[in-house]
Amino acid sequence: MILLNLAWHSLLNRKTSVLLTLLSISVSVMLLLGVEKVRTEARSSFANTVSGADLIVGARSGPVQLLLYSVFRIGDATSNISWESYQKISAHSKVAWSIPISLGDSHRGFRVMGTSRAYFEHFRYGQRQLLEFQQGQAFDGLYDAVVGAEVAKKLGYTVGDKIVVAHGLGNTSFAKHDDKPFRVVGILDPTGTPVDRTVHVSLEAIEAIHVDWKVGTRLPGQTVSAEEAAQMDLMPKQITAFILGLKSPMATFHLQRSINNYRKEPLLAILPGVALQQLWDLMSVAEKALVAISILVVFTGLIGMLTVLLTSLNERRREMAILRSVGARPAHILALLILETTALTLLGAILGALLLYAGLAAFKPWLSSAFGLYITLGPPSPYQWQLLGMVMIAGIMVGLIPGYRAYRYSLADGLSVRI
Amino acid sequence: MGSAIELDALKFGWKPGQLVLDLQPVKIDRGEQVFLKGPSGCGKSTLLNLIGAVIRPGQGSIQLLGQDLQQLSGSARDRFRADHIGFIFQMFNLLPFLSMQENILLPCRFSALRRQRAEQRFGSLEQAVGHYLDDLGLNDRALLQRPVTELSMGQQQRVAVARALIGAPEILIADEPTSALDSDSRDSFLRLLNSECQQQGTALLFVSHDSALQEHFHRTIELNAINRVMQGAL
After folding, report:
1. Nearest to A396 by CA among A348, A358, A325
2. Which residue in A87, A169, A316, A336 has the fewest CB atoms around it within 10 Å?
């Protein structure tokens, strides 16, 4: 008890250096826990994004790239696939359902995806959940749009609002399809996946707004009004990718092989789970590097603490001698120093965890819009507790060094107080 | 009346073959107030560390209150010191980060015996502190509130006296406690110290190089006169 009291008051007496030490430890702990948190959250949020899909098919590129642009809306497709190929493959006898995906346009920073009504009937996320509407219903008319929960929330849309789609991606595209505005007919429930940040329209609508466009720009003198476009043949010519659900999972590998060997067009079919695993393998190097760096940062914090304590130790020899004279044993002196580092590490760990939660709460919206990372704020995971425990042990071990020095000093100095 | 401190054939050197102390027998009775005179560098601090049971003698024996220190283990010697010896140093006796009261109560935090004695005599630790502060002329509300680092040197040394005496240890060792004081406060400090020791029956071993102080004590021991190492050097 007395030692706690002494350690506490002694630390308070050295406020500035103690606070700086505390800060460096807490920032390092925040980093350590943060890297771990983002790592696990990234995994679970990716794993939750698509569920129940057997194959994803796109133009031939890499499996990871196909997975990223088709499902996670990260990056772009290198090329499209023809409507005929889609028609042919989705008509295969083993195929239960198919969802076409056509990407490339955006609405105020959110991606616009052309698809069919099958999307609302068959697309599943998380634990095989179907998409639900919080308002309205699926698109029916040509210029109908269904927006994700975040789009609606951020832009304040309700059913009936008019929106304009911009050509290409990015927030400040100058080329707008403003001659063919859309009407919001449905708003989806939040899913914690990229669906929340997507504006969904029909494939025909994508075709219609591009009727009078060629290679990325509007053809001069050839404007086609919204009404005229609706009268035209809007059969899509190309799509970006499609998702397949099979009648029996047994057929997956067989169908995958035949799609990959499709003669008319270079296609790639991937199993989402396998591609996800490849993605993890790819990222694990970076993850390990990040974890290693954050561990090193924690060590830097602890070394900073060691420096502060060792530097102050010489000035504190008088304090030790006084304590010895009033009956403190050398073991008390050792315990006192260890108590100080333990207290500093503990406070640093608590502060670091609080900083992390505050930071995550503050940057949550930004993480989801900039990186598609949906963070859930929960209590620390067992592994995070383990990390905190290791930091504590390391802190106590570090305390042994000044503790032992002070112990030696107090044996050598005894009661003679040196200046 | 038994002896408080008894040194017999005490020899000590920090390095083998280099004796610092080789003392003739010394005996200080309980309640006796002794002035130990010695210039700096004559082994004073070493002797205090020996009597304070911090270091072990090479040869000879140290008996405090009839207990042979040689027979005690390291931690038992620490406990013995906490229970039976109070210390006052030259200066900077106080821990700057503790209040005046907590500084005075430090010995009671490490020694159950001294805590018990203080509580028995005064009712509670707070009352014990109040008693010593009254006696030493420090019981001023304004003083109590202030951090100990803002006290004058004389006031700090009086707080150190209260700390050394609380819980009535049988032996008080004072190492040049007046060297940082001016002559007026030195005399009043010595009067207070002597009367407090008298009241509690504490044996006082007062170490100083300043022979002008020796009139305040029952008896003077010249360290150089009893240290055979010094005689050899002369």
Report:
1. A348
2. A87
**Residue range A343-382, pLDDT digits in tens:** 999 999 999 999 999 998 998 878 776 676 777 788 888 8
Q: Are residues A242 and A113 in the same domain?
A: yes
What tokens appear for A309 in the block? Answer: 């304590």
Tell me which of A270, A301, A334 is where a domain ends. A270
Q: Which of A9, A323, A415 sits opposite B52 (nearest CB)?
A: A415
pLDDT for A235-294, tens place per residue? 888 899 999 999 988 889 999 999 999 888 999 999 998 998 888 888 888 888 988 998
Average pLDDT over residues A314-326: 84
CA distance A2 to A323: 11
Using the Cα atoms of residue A339, residue A340, residue A341 and residue A343 in order, give the sign of their dihedral: positive
Identify all chain B residues contacting A417, using CB atoms and an 8 Å cutoff: 89-90, 92
Looking at the fold, whether A59 and A41 belong to one and the same domain comes out as no
Contact of B8 with chain A, judged by CB distance below 8 Å, is answered with no
Q: Which residue range(s) make up the domain with A181?
A: 55-270
User: Is A9–B97 a contact, with Cβ atoms under 8 angstroms apart?
Assistant: yes
**Domain match, A367 and A342 both:** yes
Contact status of B92 with chain A (Cβ, < 8 Å): yes
Determine contact: B55 vs chain A, CB below 8 A: yes
pLDDT of residue A26 exceeding 90: yes
User: For residue A188, is it within any domain?
Assistant: yes
Residues of chain A in contact with residue B45, where contact means CB-CB under 8 angstroms, are: 415-416
Nearest to B197 by CA among B100, B151, B132: B132
Chain A residue nearest residue B46, CA to CA: A416
Best B40, B69, B77, B95 member to test A by mutation, with max A CBs in 10 Å, is B95
Is-contact A35 A294, C-beta < 8 A?
Answer: yes
Mention every residue, 6+ apart, whose C-beta is less than 8 A from residue A10: A316, A319, A336, A340, B95, B97
Whether A415 and B93 lie within 8 Å, measured CB to CB: no
Report the relative pairing of strands A129-130 and A81-82 from DSSP bridges.
unpaired
B44: nearest CA partner in chain A = A416
* Mean pLDDT calculated for residue range A407-414: 78
Q: Would A212 be classed as within a structural domain? A: yes
Q: Region B97-108: what's the mean pLDDT?
A: 88
Decide if A239 is inside a domain: yes
Copy the structure tokens of residue A389. Answer: 């425990």
- Does A276 reside within a domain? no
A59 and A40 part of one domain: no
Q: Are residues A353 and A250 in the same domain?
A: no
Do A244 and A323 fall within a single domain? no
Total count of domains within chain A:
2
Partner-chain contact A13 B97, CB within 8 Å: yes
Task: Identify the domain boundary among A241, A270, A299.
Answer: A270
Integer Cα distance of B48 and B67 in angstroms: 17
One-letter amino acid of A354: L
Same domain for A251 and A128: yes
Query: Which chain A residues contact residue B90 at CB under 8 A?
Result: 417
Nearest to A415 among B48, B98, B107 (CB): B48
- Complex confidence, ipTM: 0.86
| Contact residues on chain A for B81, CB-CB shorter than 8 A | 325, 327
